[in-house]
Design goal:
mainly alpha; Na+/H+ antiporter like fold; 17 helices; Permease
Length: about 375
């Protein structure tokens, strides 16, 4: 059996086991599983991966590329993703601009990179995530506070500066970021994995083993999609993925000498699910607005929850699909075609809805015309 197909079937089987466990695992229990993944298992994987690479100043390009991607997607969210929403849905538009440019590779991307590409690619992805973290923790918070202060009753500049300091500390204290800092420091002093005491090596390697099955089980147990806005969110995520494929294709065309693993990394990493951090910023602002008794909220929190719920399984399916058919996805022409196709398909529900509304208004106008004629004729007969 094909190696990629075999791996894919194994991953799907573990996700299926997670789905079967949904009824036995409460939502609050999932938070504990998530803490273990993000604070123990994933840091161990990144630590081992980092200590296997050779430190080079050229590696700084990866966080810069991720940050540049975030900023481009922020513009795309404003001018492409928001076009299908009406002018009155400003809170949803702001919510989209907060969530869609963000990435959460830890749960949706890293396990598949580790399985299909190996530790070297995981290390590069972890470095890229540093740029993404700066964007979601600091820049998006500043954007959210800017929107809030424009609409707020009272000035909160002091609390904003305090919050930014807190976010800076959170950026440093997060286990994944701490591991990256420690790993880079060890590499800069000439240490690698073999240089460490055997008990440290073995501990990291043992913990590393649990990451992939634990994340896949978590994905299966966590998938609980609410209906209502399913079609709209699915079309937005499809458009986001299409734009991302196009951006990856353009970069690959500009640098044709890239290796196959690096091309796949550039294709898969931007397809990560939406990050939870923008949701945390929006929730904090929503709480402040409740205190201020703002009649119109800055963000649509329920809409944000639904986006996060659908984003993780959507990205999981994309990542598995990309690696399962990697021969297609390393071709920039194919990527462009897939990207344009997904963007086009994402607009179809909007066009259909427009046509339905147009026909409904025409029928309503015809009905009113006929009703007017009948009323006029009845009046003539009575006279």
């Amino acid at each position: 059996m094909n190696f990629a197909l075999q791996n894919t079937l194994e991953l799907l089987l573990i996700i299926g086991l997670g789905l079967l466990l949904q009824k036995k695992v409460a939502k609050q229990d999932l938070k504990g599983v998530k803490v273990i993944i993000l604070s123990v298992a994933l840091p161990a994987v990144i630590f081992v991966a980092l200590l296997k690479i050779k430190l080079d100043s050229s590696l700084l390009i990866f966080p810069l590329l991720a940050l540049a991607f975030n900023l481009v997607m922020l513009l795309a969210s404003k001018y492409l993703l928001n076009t299908t929403l009406s002018k009155e849905e400003n809170s949803k538009k702001r919510t989209i601009m907060m969530l869609m440019p963000s990435l959460a590779p830890g749960l949706s991307c890293f396990p598949f990179i580790a399985i299909y590409l190996g530790d070297d690619s995981v290390a590069l992805a972890a470095l890229a995530d540093v740029g993404n973290k700066i964007f979601v923790l600091i820049l998006l918070y500043m954007v959210a506070m800017h929107w809030y202060q424009k609409r707020a009753i009272k000035d909160l500049q002091t609390s904003t500066s305090n919050k930014l300091k807190g976010l800076g500390l959170a950026l440093i204290k997060e286990p994944i970021n701490l591991v990256i800092i420690v790993g880079l420091l060890l590499l800069s002093f000439g240490f690698n994995l073999e240089s460490l005491p055997s008990f440290v090596q073995n501990t990291a390697l043992h913990i590393k083993v649990i990451m992939t099955p634990l994340i896949l089980l978590f994905i299966g147990m966590a998938v609980r999609i609410k209906s209502g806005e399913f079609g709209l969110i699915l079309s937005l995520l499809t458009r986001r993925a299409g734009i991302t494929f196009c951006l990856s294709a353009i970069f690959i065309l500009l640098f044709p000498a890239l290796s196959t693993p690096l091309i796949l990394l550039l294709v898969v990493f931007p397809q990560s699910s939406c990050s939870f951090w923008p949701f945390a910023h929006m929730s904090a602002i929503s709480s402040m607005e409740e205190e201020d008794k703002q009649p119109k909220p800055t963000f649509d929190i329920n809409f944000a929850v639904n986006i996060l719920a659908l984003s993780l399984p959507f990205s999981t399916i994309l990542c598995i699909g990309i690696f399962s058919f990697s021969d297609f996805f390393i071709n920039p022409t194919v990527l462009l075609l897939i990207g344009f196709g997904m963007v086009t398909v994402s607009f179809i529900p909007f066009v259909i809805e427009k046509i339905k509304k147009s026909k409904a208004s025409e029928l309503s106008g015809q009905f009113n015309t006929y009703a007017g004629i009948d009323t006029h004729s009845q009046g003539s007969e009575e006279n």
